[in-house]
Amino acid sequence: MEFKKKLLALVAVSSLSVSMAACSATNKPEAETPSGTNNNAQAPAAAGEAGALTPEEGAKLVIWESKDERVFTDEIAKLFTEKYNIPVQIDEIAPTDQVTRLTNDGPAGVGADVVVFPHDHLGRAASAQLILPNDSYAEETKKNNTDNAIQAVTFNNTLYGFPRAAETYALYYNKELVKEAPKSFEDVIAFSKTFTNKDKNKFGIMWETGNTYFNYPFIASTGGYLFGKNGTDKTDIGLNSEGAIAGMKVYSSLREILPVKSGDINPDIKRGLFTAGDVAMDINGPWELAGYKKALGDKLGIAPIPTVGGKPAVSFSGVKAWYVNSFSKYPNAAKLFANFASSKEAQLLLHKKVGAIPTNKEAQEDQQIKNDPIISGFVAQFKNSQPMPSIPEMDSVWNPLDSALTEVWNNGKDPKEALDTAATRLKELISSGKKQ
Asked: Residues of 411-432 as b/e, b for ≥16 C-beta within 10 angstroms?
């Protein structure tokens, strides 16, 4: 309990709030499990406390971490070393580059023992057997984290990751212009009719209307989906299902209050209009948080995305997690660190240091999070999100669906017809093995 007291004391110290990097989606086809994988992982053994692993004699760890979040890892590594007397070295590697780096460095024996990357890279890492399953702490991890976080770090029914932070998008709004966050898109339409003035370049709401990532709520909220079985079944495509078509009709209706071509809305334009007070609401992610807070200060609000067709909005989410290198010389010590650095206390420290959104259920209910109106808004949306599918076929989704969105938004194409075309094109791409 001593380390928890110390960690909670550190969490109480105020610190920076910075934006999280967006997850990229670059998966490759599944590969056969290679031979020569390191099999040094041992069964759990008592180490002075229930459920702990006995670290290997002489263990020392190398951790890969991003530059932006190293302030957290430096602190958690120090606490880990104090508790277990295991030295930790931290090397700065961007999380989106780590699987590629591990592909070569892992088998060569020079990779980090513990890595961190967004869950949409998991399929590639697990298929190549670059990482070890989270077996020793599986039950603890599943119990402590939200179901969608566990789904995100599971591949082919095997839990690999130790979730540490979540990411999704939500509704930013200017409290000076919007007194209360709208609960539904019907409310958004009603407000926007009183605010939008295209001639003056003023709009009630704006988001990237041609980008599948931000428009997933118009597919999933009313029962649509991309792939079946929680995003794992490439043979079951729900892109043009009845539910997806219903949501796309809501999407189409919003053109009335945002009469702008999808190609004329990009992050820079939207950012400028929102920070200037010419856009009252913006659907966006935590990577914009630092700039928006600087521009709006106390006028900035965050809320869940308004309901779609009377249903809670389902957004895409990403989960950053720790993973253990399958070629590590010290797999027990590495798993011990990954579990330690993803605990409730660790996630609260990560929030304090860099403004991260916790996946740990108790951390989400902690007053530190509940008293942060910005992060709690993202937490509320994350609870109703779905992890972006991590199967390689996800790479083939973007082009057909982006095209469908553009046809509906810019040209008024019938939503069913547009989605039927997108689904047919997606099936063709998957069958051919092409991405676009």
From this structure: eebebeebbebbbebbbebbee
Q: Can you tell me the distance from the alpha carbon of 212 to that of 217, in angstroms, rounded to the nearest whole number?
A: 9
User: Which tokens in the block code for residue 9?
Assistant: 């004391």
Q: Are 130 and 284 spatial neighbours (Cβ–Cβ below 8 Å)?
A: no
H-helix or E-strand containing 284?
strand 279-284
Determine the average pLDDT of the residues in 51-58: 88
CA dist 7 → 12, 55, 321, 334 (Å): 9, 21, 20, 20
Q: Are 303 and 171 in contact (CB under 8 A)?
A: yes
Q: What is the pLDDT of residue 272?
A: 97
Q: What is the token pair recorded at 332?
A: 């027990």
* pLDDT digit string, tens, across residues 349-401: 999 999 999 999 999 999 999 999 889 999 999 999 999 998 889 999 999 99
- The pTM is what? 0.82
What is the DSSP code (8-state) at residue 33? P
Residues whose CB falls within 8 Å of the CB of residue 308, separated by 6 or more in sequence, listed in order: 185, 217, 218, 221, 222, 247, 250
Q: Taking Cα atoms as reference points, which of 322, 323, 321, 329 lies closest to residue 42? A: 329
Which of 30-34, 59-63, 225-229, 390-394 is predicted with the least confidence, judged by mean pLDDT? 30-34
225 within 8 A of 244, measured Cβ to Cβ = yes
Q: Is the pLDDT of residue 14 over 70?
A: no
For residue 273, give every residue at least 6 positions away whose Cβ sits within 8 Å of its Cβ, in sequence order, or none.
Answer: 201, 203, 206, 279
Rounded-to-integer distance, Cα 171 and Cα 303, Å = 5
Around 165, how many Cα atoms within 13 Å sit in the side-chain half-sphere?
28
10 Å Cβ neighbour count for 94? 14
pLDDT tens, 395-423? 999 999 999 999 999 999 999 999 999 99
Note whether 172 and 302 are within 8 A (CB).
Answer: yes
Q: Which residues pair with 75 in a beta bridge?
A: none
Q: Helices marked H in 238-300 — which ranges? A: 242-253, 267-275, 289-296
